[in-house]
Write a structure and sequence with these properties.
Layout lengths: L7 H20 L6 H15 L2 E5 L11 H7 L4 E5 L5 H16 L4 E4 L7 H11 L1 H4 L2 E2 L9 H11 L4 H15 L7
Parallel strand pairs: 1-2, 2-3, 3-4
Helix pairs in contact: 5-7
Length: about 180
């Protein structure tokens, strides 16, 4: 384990981290060696049929920040956006784009954990009108940080009167997406 130094060396360490963070944020995910690392992960996912989970939320995990990666490899690799964006701002960004990305042939899905207020109902109402959108939504609770019963209640309420969609969200979408078959 590497320990942090004190005094002048600590300042140098902080400056190096700051420089790396700034260069990554300016160029996105394509900076080398970051690009090489991501390509290794993508190659593994392609060869094994694995799903890459991308944590979404506020700040540096906002869904806008993963869009380049999803567009770069989403036709060959399956991506799972965890937490449906994670906040209201991200819900407004993500929900209209999910169908767009699916229509473009991108293999992207999201789960229902941490969906706020109106967002899950909006998403499932749109999904009930479009099976392509309905095929990319999965139930999740984020247990133990989320409350399973509360997350399930949100899905049951939002999918009321939509039994086929409810079955897909609660079970069959995840079974299909997490199988080791080719991306769908």
């Amino acid at each position: 384990m590497k320990t942090r130094k004190t005094g002048t060396q600590n300042s140098t360490y902080s400056a190096e981290l700051s420089h790396k963070r700034d260069s990554i944020s300016k160029t996105g995910f394509l900076e080398v060696p970051l690009r090489e690392s991501i390509d290794m992960i993508l190659d593994y996912a392609r060869s094994t049929g694995s799903v890459i989970q991308l944590h979404t939320g506020s700040g540096k995990s906002h869904v806008r920040l993963v869009e380049k990666l999803v567009r770069y490899a989403g036709k060959e690799v399956r991506f799972h956006l965890v937490h449906m964006g994670g906040n209201v701002d991200a819900h407004f960004y993500l929900i209209p784009r999910l169908l767009e990305w699916r229509e473009e042939g991108l293999n992207i899905v999201c789960d229902t954990s941490w969906s706020g207020g109106f967002a899950l109902r909006w998403l499932l109402d749109l999904a009930s009108e479009n099976p392509l959108l309905g095929s990319c939504i999965m139930f999740a609770s984020d247990e133990p940080w989320g409350i399973f019963q509360a997350e399930l209640a949100k899905v049951l309420d939002a999918a009321d009167g939509k039994p086929d969609l409810l079955e897909a969200v609660l079970w069959s979408n995840a079974a299909r997406i997490y199988s080791r078959q080719s991306p769908t």
